[in-house]
Amino acid sequence: MRVHDRIEALKSKHAALESAIQTEASRPLPDVDQISQLKRQKLKIRDEMSSIDSLLRH
Questions:
Q1: Residue-wise pLDDT tens digits, 5-57
Q2: Cα–Cα distances in Å, from 16 out to 12, 21, 38?
Q3: For residue 58, what pLDDT is reported?
Q4: Roughly what angle, to the nearest 10 degrees, separates helices 32-57 and 3-25?
Q5: Contact, 7 vs 52, CB < 8 A?
Q6: Cβ distance 52 to 6 under 8 Å?
Q7: Contact predicate 43/10, CB 8 Å
Q8: Containing domain of residue 37, as a range?
Q9: What is the domain count for the chain?
Q10: First vs last Cα of the chain: how many Å apart?
Q11: What is the dihedral of CA 17, 48, 46, 41, to 10 degrees?
């Protein structure tokens, strides 16, 4: 997989996780454990995107 394709896939996953977080948070009784898990996944993706960006800049 090309680097550009990987970044685009990560951006897509990041956006999907944000949507899932918003959906869960807007429920009458949101599952805070589920939200925390989604946020951790989102953070890992952001960290991977940052790592790739850092490697490309050097």
A1: 999 999 999 999 999 999 999 999 999 999 999 999 999 999 999 999 999 88
A2: 6, 9, 10
A3: 78
A4: 160
A5: yes
A6: yes
A7: no
A8: 3-57
A9: 1
A10: 20
A11: 40
Tokens of 19: 């949507």
Q: Which residue has the tokens 């977080």?
A: 21
Instruction: Give, in order, the Cα–Cα distances in Å from 2 to each of 17, 22, 30, 33, 49.
Output: 23, 31, 38, 34, 14
Query: Rounded to an integer, what distance in angstroms lies between the CA atom of residue 10 and that of residue 52?
Result: 11
Q: Which two tokens stand for residue 35?
A: 């939200």
| Distance separating alpha carbons of residues 10 and 28, to the nearest angstrom | 30
Q: How far apart are CA 6 and CA 16, in angstroms?
A: 15
